[in-house]
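Possible regression after last week's pipeline update?

I re-ran a chain I had predicted before the update to compare outputs. Posting the input and the new output here so someone can diff against the archived version. Not blocking, just want to make sure nothing changed silently.
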Amino acid sequence: MPEDTFDDRDLLEEIVGFCGSFLTVREGTVYFVHQSAKDYVLKQAFNEIFPSGREKAHYIIFSRSLQVMSKTPRRDMYRLRALAYSIERVEVPDPDPLAASRYSCIHWVDYLCDWNPNFCANHIVDLQDGGVVDEFVKKKYLYWLGALSLCKITRIRITRAGSRCAPIHPVSQGGSENSPLQAYASALMFSPTRSLIKGLFRHEEPKWITAKPPIGDEWSAYLQTLEGHRKGVTSVAFSRDSTCLASASFDKTVKI
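New output (post-update):
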């Protein structure tokens, strides 16, 4: 599919219409028409549709998603203007500047983690210094966080069990999960002084803030404090997918 068609929603819906036996579009999202169609495509017909294999398919989707993300995110895409503008008050504009890139914005990391760079040595450069991921983080990372907030996504799982993907330290959340534009204010202000992202996007800090809080040079080992127990914690355990943490206490309660 030509790259210049990615933002043409009408043309994309027309193309999907030719796949009426398998795919349909509802509210701008492509769905399989039935579970049996999904099973057929992902099992019986997978090798015919993706002759280069699953790893290559993941790489192609990751690569194209990052191409879209390298062009779309920018500061204040919904023109909220006020730093304290609550996500609950945000109304999606028409046309939506995130419409064509919403899926890529949320899921490009998933395809990166599912892709095996050893599958093709020519593509491993994408993960090296100066590669596409490195360039994206340096130029668009903060704007990506803002876009995620507009999508009401507050966490992206970077690491997976057994994956070679390393975690990317975000800037401090700084309230951006509740107010998207705080990614450019408190999130930067309360990040360590030697934070790579803070250094790259220092120009986005509000110029009117002159008295800045004292912040350490590096990220603290204490990224989050477990609260809610009335007595000491006796044990903690992660879920199998590493997305949840359970803590047990002498107060005879378990918190998730």
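Follow-up from reviewer: compared with the archived run. Residues 159-174 have pLDDT under 50 and may be disordered. Marking as no regression found.
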